[in-house]
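Whiteboard transcription, Tuesday session. T.W. wrote the structure tokens on the left side:
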């Protein structure tokens, strides 16, 4: 809170200090990794190849990933590679080491009650996101190393051969179907009770979610900003301000929907789609710090809505496939065994779009006021700052009718 209210130059200094500290820790980690004994590494390599008959054939190489992580408590992401002798000859191997420091905020000094490094560790430990049916599954975790320095090292599957961002429509539809099948089967088959899995935390936090509050405050403070008005001309600005009036209604309706295990942070940087020629198709998820029990539509709606806060190509693709995407997800739900009313499914899909709409409308105001983390917002956009308002306007115009539909459905659900 002190950092939030500090002068901009202090906020920048704190951010730069955090980034430098992160870089220094990553260098220190590289030294620790390359000095690990062979017996330690062989444990991981045996898991990778699914065989006890493994011997290292070369030393380990460690390289920090270029990916920028804003996950809470994430210290470093490092790709480790080497070669190993197996029964089938010498083979290359690779793994991703994710280092978590418990109790830490993210690189911008932001933390939230709806995310925890401990939840992520437990999700991997219990393999909560193992494949049930359909193409959706969690990434494999080869080894969980709880260290003495309050860190945990997660040795995970390397998904470099899978697609990253900038999906095509077919990949979005595959992911929608996979999410539907996974969550439909979780609802019908049930999941193991875990006392640490929080129920409805994402939904119940909406009225006070820090980023949403910050976006709304920024919008209200920039009513006269030419930059903001270029993105939200005329009545669009007034409509963006009124979005918050729907939050309580959406929360009340979402609480009436069936709920089950949820990833709670689905976007294309946390999901990977395999090439069908390489044993696919598969949809593989990482980053389980927000795992919990939430309503049936939250992951599919989040994946769809999140694209509107990133690049032009992503939002353009999504605007062309909204109904095919919804249909693919609904078919997945039914294939997974869920047979509830279409009213619940449709509202469940639309409910997460309210949060994303507030995000989209608030982006130009957030940048205009140079709030903490605005640089990352521009990085996500990948375009020039002066071009962003022209990109935001069609996104917001597209989302508004979906929010209006969601509002009507929410009233029906609350009144029944």
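and on the right, the sequence the group agreed on:
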């Amino acid at each position: 809170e002190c950092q939030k209210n500090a002068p901009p130059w202090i906020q920048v200094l704190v951010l730069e200090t955090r980034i430098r500290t992160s870089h220094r820790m990553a260098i220190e980690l590289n030294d620790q990794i390359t000095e690990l004994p062979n017996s330690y590494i062989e444990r991981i390599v045996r898991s990778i190849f699914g065989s006890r008959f493994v011997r290292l054939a070369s030393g380990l190489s460690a390289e920090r990933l270029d990916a920028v992580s804003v996950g809470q408590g994430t210290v470093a992401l490092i790709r480790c590679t080497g070669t190993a002798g197996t029964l089938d000859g010498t083979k290359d191997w690779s793994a991703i080491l994710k280092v978590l420091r418990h109790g830490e905020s993210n690189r911008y000094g932001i933390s939230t009650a709806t995310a925890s490094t401990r939840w992520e560790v437990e999700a991997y430990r219990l393999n909560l996101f193992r494949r049930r049916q359909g193409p959706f599954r969690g990434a494999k975790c080869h080894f969980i190393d709880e260290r003495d320095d309050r860190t945990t090292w997660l040795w995970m599957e390397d998904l470099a051969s899978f697609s990253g961002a900038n999906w095509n429509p077919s990949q979005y539809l595959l992911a929608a179907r996979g999410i539907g099948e996974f969550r439909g089967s979780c609802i019908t088959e049930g999941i193991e009770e875990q006392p640490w899995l929080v129920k409805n935390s994402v939904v119940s936090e909406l009225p006070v979610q820090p980023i949403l509050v910050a976006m709304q405050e920024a919008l209200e403070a920039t009513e006269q900003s030419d930059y903001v008005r270029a993105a939200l001309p005329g009545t669009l600005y007034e409509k963006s301000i009124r979005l918050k009036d729907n939050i309580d209604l959406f929360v009340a309706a979402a609480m009436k929907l069936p709920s089950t295990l949820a990833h709670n942070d689905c976007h294309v940087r946390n999901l990977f789609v395999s090439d069908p020629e390489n044993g696919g198709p598969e949809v593989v998820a990482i980053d389980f710090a927000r795992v919990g029990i939430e309503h049936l539509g939250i992951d599919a709606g989040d994946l769809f809505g999140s694209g509107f806060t990133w690049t032009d190509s992503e939002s353009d693709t999504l605007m062309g496939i909204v109904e095919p995407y919804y249909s693919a997800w609904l078919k997945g739900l039914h294939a997974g065994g869920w047979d509830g009313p279409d009213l619940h499914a449709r509202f469940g899909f639309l409910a997460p779009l309210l949060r994303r709409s507030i995000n989209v409308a608030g982006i130009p105001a957030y940048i205009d006021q140079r709030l903490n983390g605005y640089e990352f917002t521009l990085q996500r956009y990948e375009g020039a700052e002066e071009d962003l308002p022209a990109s935001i306007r069609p996104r917001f115009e597209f989302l508004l009718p979906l929010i209006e539909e969601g509002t009507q459905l929410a009233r029906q659900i609350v009144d029944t």
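Someone added at the bottom: Confidence is low (pLDDT under 50) at residues 8-19.
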